Amino acid sequence: MNITLPLTALIGGTGLTQYPGLTISHEKNVETDLGQTSSPLVFGELFGQPVVFLARHGHPHKLPPHKVNYRANLLALKQAGVSEIIAVNAVGGITEGMDAQAICIPDQIIDYTHGREDTFFDGVYKPLDHVDFTHPYDPVLSEKLYKAAQSKNIDVQKGGVYAATQGPRLETIAEINRLEKDGCDVVGMTGMPEAVLARELNIAYASLSLVVNKAAGKSDELITMDDIRNVLDQGMHRVQVIIAGFLENK
Ligand code: HPA
Q1: DSSP secondary structure, 39-73, as one string
Q2: What are the angstrom distances between the C-alpha of 174 and each of 100, 189, 215, 216, 217?
Q3: What is the tens place of the pLDDT at every residue in 9-37?
Q4: Which CATH architecture has domain 7-248?
Q5: Shortest-distance Cα residue to atom 3 of ligand 1
Q6: Which residues have CB under 6 Å of ligand 1?
Q7: Ligand 1 atom nearest 223 alpha carbon
């Protein structure tokens, strides 16, 4: 019997604009009805599985979080036959344990962004509709990522609340205190509207959120891009090991 497995897409963020080890079969520039994707879709094979890779900020990294055409990205992935997405996000850590190098698989999200095109159901592209978003991250896919991390002996926090902020500036101490009171564990700039657009297209979506700095006011240091880059280099490797575990078990 020939069972077709879901086609997995990997969306890479800051620190992951190319996917190491991916055997590329072809790249496709996509102009959707809603505009151009951040970068070409890269089709290939990773650990024996077909995957599609997309660099969220372009390659090289050029698009700030609020300028990413999330709708075009998600639509192009859907049209390519993708049915599950592992999103990789670099985030700031707010709560205990969310220190640089920690990895969180969030199960909830709060959207603090504004002015982004955040739905397909806008009455223009598609008629108005309201999707259920009780569980913004796909629980089954998230659990598989958690199991993959365990199988590779990589510590991850299972569950957590992702605060999606507008950026591109980082937050003030007061803003982070407010996010903490709201129950947020990590803060990043790209979680929304990506997660909801995936839901609107019925694509399973989960995130591996790598903490690259303590959020504003949570350490004595100011946040520098140099420090973030150092963490990214090591941390993204661990994220890739989790993805390897996931694909090997597929
Ligand atoms: N805040 C928001 N987004 C981020 C951060 C942060 O501290 N670090 C990485 N992405």
Answers
A1: S-EEEEEETTEEEEEEETTTTTT---GGG--HHHH
A2: 21, 17, 11, 9, 8
A3: 999 999 899 999 999 999 999 999 999 99
A4: 3-Layer(aba) Sandwich (3.40)
A5: 188
A6: 90-92, 165, 170-171, 187-189, 212-213, 215
A7: 7
